[in-house]
Amino acid sequence: MNPYLTALSKIYLMIVKIDISNGDCMVIKDDPKSGFIVSGVTNAQTFSDVLVDNLVSQADDAETLRSFIDHKTLEERIGNKTHLFGDFQFKSSGWCRIGLVPEHTDDGSDCLLVIAFDIDEEKQTEIKKQKEIERNNVALHEALMAANHASQAKTTFLNSMSHDIRTPMNAIIGFTSLAAAHIDSRDAVEEYLKKITVSSNHLLSLINDVLDMSRIESGRTKLEETEVSLPEVLHDLRSIVLSNIQAKQLDFYIDIQDVVNESVIVDKLRLNQILLNILGNAIKFTPVGGTITMRVIENPSPRPDYAEYEFRIKDTGIGISPEYQRHIFEPFSREETSTVSGIQGSGLGMAITKNIVDMMNGAIAVSSELGKGTEFTVILDLKKTGSPVSQEVIPELQDMHALVADDDFNTCSSVSKMLSTIGMRAEWTTSGKEAVLRACYAKEEGDEFRAYIIDWLMPDMNGIEVVRRIRKVIGKDTPIIILTAYDWTAIEEEAREAGVTGFCSKPLFLSELRDVLSRPFRKVEEAPKVEVDMTEFEGCRILLAEDNPLNQELAATILSEYGFKIDIANDGMQALEQMTNHEAGYYDVLITDIQMPVMNGYNLSRNVRVLADKGKANIPILALTANAFEEDRQLAHAAQMDGHLSKPIDVQEMLSEIRRVIGTYRKTR
Ligand code: ADP
Questions:
Q1: Over the stretch 568-611, which tens digit does the pLDDT of each residue have?
Q2: What is the pLDDT of residues 403-423, one digit of tens each?
Q3: Where are the beta strands (DSSP E) in 340-448?
Q4: Of 148, 306, 407, 551, which is least surrounded by CB within 10 A?
Q5: Looking at the DSSP assignment, which residues form a beta bridge with residue 101?
Q6: Which residues does a 6 A CB cutoff place in the pocket of ligand 1?
Q7: What beta strand segments (E) does 83-214 contain?
Q8: Dihedral sign computed on CA atoms, order 181, 184, 185, 190
Q9: Paired residues of 378 in beta bridges
Q10: Ligand 1: centre distance to CA 533 (Å)
Q11: Is the model more confident about 527 or about 255?
Q12: Phi and psi at residue 601, in whole multiples of 5°?
């Protein structure tokens, strides 16, 4: 053998010599390690078949390998003395580098040496490194993206906070100086104060949102579940949003469907927050004259003792783009249309809402179309308490005829269903005029309606007018109830004169309908009227521990207006000294700030509780503090305080707390 080949064969796994003129093969070396088993091959075609069959990935490499070995196509390249190399992975030997070396033999013919050498180990290391580099690149890229995102989120947050805080602050400062400039004009000052209050409340809710979000995100928020009445929640909700709805002249429909369990276990504050955030946005993002609909549906729950409540809030507002719908629950995100239109907001409401719904193991979904409107659906599985509202018929009303007139089809259907539940034969109409006609017709037929439920605002005829006309037809004894989502106090007198028996707020619950219709058949004991006693706190003395002079003045001024006498201590130590220096009973209540120099509120409370004189040690103690979270409440309780009031001061809440603790204290003395 040619010494050159002999030398080569020591290094390589396989050497095959191909005669370029006819494709004949001669195997010079076929190391069993290679596993190719090409020993018997005699032509290029069979040789390439054997190699290709042994490839791991036929798809990618077969063509390349065949073209390597095809003696005809290589004929031209040989002329250029080109050396070709390629790496292939074989089933038997792993990665091999196949090289083609043109050779001019002694007998003058041209041939091609196909040689293979083992590169499996280095290739595996290289692949591993490559993969690691790729992994690192991906991780680096992700870290970079996260850092960019975080930095962008921080910038956006600071920008929007700066804007959102400055806007109400600007109004507060501006109107305060305007009030000072017009101090002699009572009307102007009153107007400015109103504006200051609105901006202050907005600022407070913004601060609350930011704090709430950070607390929820850090997992520090706990649900406080208690027994809650759904009618109460929904009626409160309606009253809260009503003025905004009326200010924007929106049509507001609110109704319930199949709610038979009206009492559930839930965190009332958080449930309110969910519904208010969604309803608030619906009002905010719906232009004047639009419509907002809220429905609550009770469905069976898969869990025993639970019911599934579906809250749907729909508006005909600006809508949300499909792109933004994917981000709506991310903190600080706001759609461009809402920022451009100058509508106030922090982009936190929906994120908070989603977090609370998650904490309650519920679900929230949004469906929306730009320019058409938006619908949010919240589903909560809540534990039922108490027994379901009675489904029994009211015997006195059994089979009696009743009429529902409301332009909202959903309300008609839901109220008619309830009327059937209590045993009445219900009919409904969405037209006021038709209601009057039906009343006449029923009378002629001798099957008069024994109860009317009439919506106040119907497009074709106002509910009061409907009642006036119906009353002309029927006697004065049949109850006519006005059903409304709005505040009726302004029209109450006119309505009563027209013949209205009573009012019910939407949404009307079964328990409320039962109550109002069965009232004539029950003996009702008039609840004694509670007179407000303005002299209630006359002579009561409060020790107020507060280090901030402005807060001292504010609390002292408010409290003295209600007849309290106020002594002020600038820190906990001074308060303790004042308690020690006066006889037991001199102070009726101790109200203390928490963060104060020298001695804080918690330590003041603990020190008072261990005073030797029991009359002093048992004095009612209330915290009045800007530390407004549930754990602060618990800390106050742990420091043996009797209650916790958070700043900013809510006067009515403060008075009722003082009333409560003084009452308990006097009973035990
Ligand atoms: P904001 O304080 O901006 O209202 P939210 O988190 O409550 O913050 O809402 C985030 C954004 O979602 C809003 O800025 C608005 O772009 C969009 N959005 C929420 N509800 C509605 C709705 N009912 N109609 C139109 N857009 C809405």
A1: 999 999 999 999 999 988 999 999 998 888 999 999 999 999 99
A2: 999 999 989 999 999 999 889
A3: 363-369, 373-384, 401-405, 425-429
A4: 148
A5: 113
A6: 277, 281-282, 285, 315, 317-320, 328, 334-335, 338, 345-351, 374
A7: 84-90, 94-104, 110-118
A8: positive
A9: 311, 364
A10: 45
A11: 255
A12: -65, -40
